[in-house]
Amino acid sequence: MVGERYPMHASSTGKVLLAEQPVEKLRRTLPEELEAFTPHTITDRDALFKELEQVREQGFAIIDNELEPELLSLSRPVRDSAGTMVAILTLNGPRSRFGRAHIPDALQQMQDTVDHLADLFWRDSASN
Question: Where does 20-128 have alpha helices with state H?
Fold first, then answer.
């Protein structure tokens, strides 16, 4: 997808970005039916809203075969000291090497990285 845009509803990074938006805004801007990229893509807006609520609660997003067959992707927001999202850390891999069994360990390693990045942002903002 070089030079193309990723669909927000079918990528883990996009789901983290969408989860930051108020539901009322999403209801006004997202179409009723979302484009399918695989048979696993969430195409129902209400189903997506439920998933975005889960992303907000758990602090990460997952896609599994939603954008491309055999693609598993995890994303976590990186926040500054005020809680504002300043970046997103994403891990993509083929299911043949990075299956669902690896998700808990990958999420923990990603959280460690997110915590380190947040420390750098906080340290930087405190020195300015």
Answer: 23-29, 45-58, 103-127
Q: How far is CA 6 from the centre of its chain?
A: 12
- What are the φ and ψ backbone dihedral angles of 103, each rounded to 5 degrees? -60, -50
CA-nearest of 86, 41, 87 to 63 is 41
Query: Is the separation of the CB atoms in 32 and 45 below 8 Å?
Result: yes
pLDDT digits (tens, 9 = 90+) for 25-82: 999 999 988 999 999 999 999 999 999 999 999 999 999 999 999 999 999 999 888 8
User: What's at 85, amino acid-wise?
Assistant: M
**pTM of the complete model:** 0.89
Residue type, 47: A
